[in-house]
Amino acid sequence: MASPDLSYPPHQMLAHDLQLLRAPNPSAMTGPGTNTYVLGTHDVVVIDPGPAIGVHLSAILQAVPAGGRVSHILVTHSHLDHSALAPDLARETGAPVFGFGVSGSGRSAVMARLAARGAVLGGGEGADPSFCPDRMLRDGQRLRGQGWQLRAVWTPGHFGNHMCFVGGGRLFSGDHVMGWASSLVSPPDGDMGDYMASLRRLSRLRAGLCLPGHGAPFAQPRARILALMAHRQAREAEILAALGPNFVTLPDLCAQVYADVPTALQGAALRNLFAHVIDLHERGLIEPEGLLDPNTRFCRRPEPGALVSLSQAPDQS
Ligand SMILES: [Zn+2]
Questions:
Q1: How far, in Å, from the CA of 44 to the mean position of ligand 1?
Q2: What are phi and psi of 310, to 5 degrees?
């Protein structure tokens, strides 16, 4: 994870029909702050209202062109830094809020199973428990307003209810694809298998400009998406290489595999590692010592060939 690019201004006219408003909530996890996009030249759609900060609400209302109104509010996912302002913005403008579903919706089967076990799993960082869209979006659903069209693409992985929005060569990527950092994938809201599958899907979309939830917009999203996939595949290879037949704890494994991560992000690294090991376990490559949770120790599963040769070994008795 690189340091955030603070060079882009808090309010930017990206095109004649597209404004970026950066919320004043910078942190190690949010980078320079959450990006809110205002799309349209008369009636507008607001993509990710952002955190519940009064001055940010005022900035969004001021960005609405004279004589126009907010017709749609889209939320990429229900992390508080993206969704918390949605009810206030809806109240001020009368616009409906669109999203995939409440927090906890869209989880994979394994994550739904693990979430049922509750606190031992950890996670849930920054989730918005009261998020409830007025209109639920389906994967592939098309949205149309005055002078704009977007297609919703369901992209679970960072969060089960995460959606990206594509249209006019632009990819509004939320927290799934960012230029300055890789995404937090923290079970049970985060799922590494889903995250990779969603990246693969996004890599096939045609878009020349990526408009992320944090950090500066950037061109050629496909190159970045492929780099993010390669980054996770490299981590996975490191995890498998570090694991042997003996059980090790996740913090010990993290110290080996995520040694390059700054201290402020070590907690996030541990959650990403947990997401990787769940995925590797799902694929039959590693084994937990007990129940699948962050306090369990893990080891590499013997190669299937090794099991076969053992079972076929001549009887020594
Ligand atoms: Zn998020």
A1: 23
A2: -65, -45
Establish if 245 belongs to a structural domain: yes
Q: Are residues 46 and 195 in the same domain?
A: yes
pLDDT digits (tens, 9 = 90+) for 240-254: 999 999 999 999 999
Q: Among the three residues 176, 201, 228, which one is the final residue of a domain in this structure?
A: 228
Looking at the structure, tell me whether residues 273 and 211 fall in a common domain: no
Is residue 6 one of the residues assigned to a domain?
no
In angstroms, what is the span from residue 167 Cα to ligand 1's centroid?
Answer: 21
238 and 186 within one domain: no
Q: Are 163 and 154 in contact (CB under 8 A)?
A: yes
pLDDT per residue as tens digits for the range 192-216 = 999 999 999 999 999 999 999 999 9
Cα-based torsion angle of the residue sequence 262, 267, 273, 274 in order, rounded to the nearest 10 degrees = 180
Backbone phi and psi for residue 95, each to the nearest 5 degrees, phi listed first: -80, 145
